[in-house]
Iron complex transport system substrate-binding protein (Thermoanaerobacterium butyriciformans), 316 residues
Amino acid sequence: MKKWIKNISIFIIVAVLSLSLVSCSQTTKEKASTNANSVKTEVKATFPLKITDFMGRQVTIKKEPKRIVSLSPSTTELIYAIGAGKDVVGVTNYDDYPPEVKSVAKVGGYEGPNIEAILAQKPDIVFASNLSGKDQMETIEKSGIPVVVIEAQNINQIYDSIKILGEITGNTEKGNEIIKTMKDKIKEINDKVKDLPKVNVFYVVDTNGNWTAGKGTFIDELITLAGGNNVASDANGWAQYSMEKLVQKNPDVIITSPHAANANEIKNMAGYKDTKAAKDGKIFIISNDDIVTKPSNRIVLGLEEIAKGLHPEAFK
């Protein structure tokens, strides 16, 4: 009898422990499922939404936009990158990336866009730039359409652009992914070159007038991150640079773009031919102007090309 009671007791204990384990397992699974779902769920903005744009204006957006007009090619690129390209109904005559944007209705250029063409697209929002025209944008706003100015002047402001666009279009998570990818790539490149000797660089924007990229340009920032020293950093923005001063600065490397000139032309041009870069044959052409001048996520491609041109040994 005692043996029988003992066996029953053991059975009950085992059963209780089994039920506890099953319960714990189910709870763990439920928690895991809940956590997984919370990670996948996109956090949507609540409308009406108030945004401070790059002009410092507070803009109220009454509803989530489903019809977007972009008046800046770089902004268009970012809109497509974060996954809101399907909502773009109007772009400038100069938009060419990504390729699918070529089939989107054109509403004019950077400066003085066609108001009638913009309004004909019945946009819920217009993303403008500083060049879009104050009077034109006020006309659009008077029609009840919010205008948000996006105008990044450096890489950190590209991140700000992505955050604003992501919040407005309901693509915050994708925007954060793009920002992280950019930061990781920039760090990876900079880590390879930061301890190497700085290379003196001159960037040729246009040989006609000897235009270059001075302080405050994306190209100046990219040269610095790529382990270089922009010899024209004593100039501000896009500037004509003295040929006499260029020869005096004697850059180790000259960089230019496909539309400006080819390497042989620069190598044999007056002034340029007297530089160390020309004598050593260290003149290279960036593959695409857009990746060093447009404030989009593709700017990291330009950084990588410049870094490889300045420090090829770091990328073997």
About this structure: The CA atoms of residues 91 and 106 lie 5 Å apart. The chain has a mean pLDDT of 89. DSSP finds twelve helices and twelve strands in the chain. The two ends are 82 Å apart (CA to CA).
